[in-house]
Amino acid sequence: MSHSPQGGNQEARSVLGALGSKYSAEILCAAETPKSAQALSDDIEIPIATCYRRIEELVEAGLLECEGRQLSEEGRRTSIYRRTIDEVEIDFSDDRPRFSEKRRTEAKNRLQDQRRE
């Protein structure tokens, strides 16, 4: 696990805030493979507007990233998202929360994508 850098207090707050929102954890679980906001919304059965808000929070916290764009079934260009981490550990034993994370590697992403095909 990589530890957040010195001064990672803001980063810890951002991660805690994003994870504290309803449906954020479910979105991260569903985004193991690249998915559009619509697919994530459908997978976890939440309104698309809520899904977009959570995606924005998770991207800002660095837990989810846009992997690119693809054409939807309706022919519109849509962003595709995948989580950037597999685990987050939060330590509350100090005066401020600290966290460490296990980031996803490109190799793991490629392996996951090959399994889907």
Automatic annotation (TrEMBL):
Residues 94-117 are annotated as: Disordered. It comes from the Archaea. SUPFAM superfamilies: Winged helix' DNA-binding domain. This is Winged helix-turn-helix domain-containing protein.
